[in-house]
Write a structure and sequence with these properties.
Blueprint: E1 6-9, E2 15-16, H1 17-24, H2 29-37, E3 41-43, E4 46-47, E5 53-54, E6 59-62, E7 80-83, E8 87-92, H3 109-119, E9 127-128, E10 137-143, H4 146-157, E11 162-170, E12 177-181, E13 184-186, E14 193-195, E15 203-212, E16 215-222, H5 229-236, E17 259-267, E18 274-278, H6 283-286
Parallel strand pairs: 10-17
Antiparallel strand pairs: 1-6, 2-5, 3-4, 3-6, 7-8, 8-10, 9-10, 11-16, 11-17, 12-15, 13-14, 15-16, 17-18
C-alpha cells in the first residue's frame, strides 16, 4: 500500500459519512462508492458504510487501493520540480509525447513516469492533470491518486487553476497588452484549428515582455484551455509562435515551437493551500532574444 492515506476530521455532529466526504472534502460519488465497496473508508480502524453517522472530532481515514497501469515501463530522465504524496510535477522537455499514440508507444512521458512509480514502489496509475504538445515545454502535473486528479480537474473546469505561458512570437504586436476573445473550432477532420464563430469560446490574456529583431516575448495567461489555443490565437494576430510549422512556419532559430508553460498556480487537493510551481525556461528559448 502507498503512503497516501487521507486523514479527515469531522467538525460537525450527526452527519453521514457520505456527506462528510462529498460536501466537505469534495470526493466524487463514483469514487466514494468504490472506496466503500473496497472497504477503504474506516473509523478508528474499522470499515464503515457511507450511511454511518459521524460526530465532532471523529477521525475518518481513506486509503486508495494499489493499482497497475498499462504502460511499458521505460527508464528516462524526468526533470522533477515538485513531489509529495498526491502530486508529481515535471518540467517537460521538448520533442517527447506525453501520452502514447499509434506512432509513440514506448517513448512517452507516461512510459517514464510508469517506470518511476514502479522503481519507487508507488503503486498508482499515471493520471495526467494537464497535457502539453510534443514540442511544448514546461509544467506537467501527474496526480498520484484519483482524489487528487478529480479535485484539480474540477478546479480546471471552473477556471480556478492559473496557467501562465511564455512564448516567442514571429512578429511584433501592435497592442502590447490585451485579451484575445475569439472562438476556436476544428478544421474538418484535421488536427488543425482556426478562429471561427461556430467554435468554442476561448480567452487568452497576454502582455509583451520584450521585443528584439522582429521577435516578441509574451507572457500569456489562459482563461480557457482549448487545444492549440495559444498557437491559433497568435496566428490570428499575424504573429504566430516562432517555429510553429502547423500555424506559422519553421525557423532556423529554433527547431520547435517556442512555447513554454512557465507556471501553474492552484489549490493543493489535500492541504487546501495555494501552491505555485514554476519550470525554468529552456535554453533554446532563452537564447532567442539575446
Amino acid at each position: 500500500m502507498n503512503n497516501d492515506t487521507m486523514v479527515l476530521t469531522c467538525r460537525w455532529d450527526s452527519i453521514k459519512a457520505r456527506k462528510l466526504l462529498e460536501d466537505y472534502y469534495g470526493f466524487s460519488s463514483k469514487l466514494i462508492n468504490k472506496l466503500e465497496l473496497e472497504g477503504l473508508i474506516q473509523l478508528e480502524g474499522r470499515k464503515i458504510k457511507l450511511n454511518k453517522s459521524l460526530y465532532s472530532d471523529d477521525v475518518v481515514t481513506v486509503d486508495f487501493a494499489d493499482e497497475e497501469d498499462e504502460y511499458a515501463k521505460i527508464r528516462m530522465d524526468l526533470n522533477i520540480i515538485f513531489e509529495d504524496e498526491d502530486l508529481l510535477i515535471l518540467n517537460k522537455q521538448p520533442f517527447i509525447v506525453v501520452h502514447p499514440t499509434r506512432r509513440h508507444q514506448d517513448d512517452t512521458i507516461a512510459n517514464g513516469v510508469s517506470y518511476y512509480f514502479f522503481e519507487n514502489q508507488i503503486r498508482r496509475k499515471v493520471r495526467f492533470v494537464n497535457r502539453l504538445d510534443m514540442n511544448t515545454t514546461g509544467v506537467l502535473i501527474i496526480a498520484k491518486n484519483p482524489y487528487a486528479h478529480n479535485m484539480i480537474s474540477q478546479e480546471m473546469r471552473r477556471n480556478k487553476v492559473k496557467k501562465t505561458y511564455l512564448a516567442v512570437l514571429d512578429g511584433i504586436l501592435t497592442v502590447k497588452e490585451d485579451t484575445i476573445n475569439q472562438n476556436i473550432g476544428r478544421i474538418g477532420d484535421n488536427i488543425k484549428r482556426e478562429v471561427h464563430e461556430s467554435g468554442k469560446a476561448c480567452i487568452t490574456h497576454y502582455k509583451v515582455l520584450e521585443e528584439n529583431k522582429g521577435l516578441t516575448l509574451v507572457e500569456i495567461f489562459l482563461e480557457t484551455g482549448r487545444t492549440h489555443q495559444i498557437r491559433v490565437h497568435f496566428d490570428f494576430l499575424n504573429a504566430p509562435v516562432l517555429g510553429d510549422n502547423l500555424y506559422g512556419k519553421t525557423s532556423h532559430l529554433i527547431n520547435r515551437q517556442a512555447l513554454h508553460c512557465q507556471s501553474i498556480e492552484m489549490v493543493h487537493p489535500r492541504t487546501k493551500e495555494l501552491i505555485r510551481v514554476e519550470a525554468d525556461l529552456p535554453e533554446d528559448m532563452q537564447s532567442l532574444l539575446k
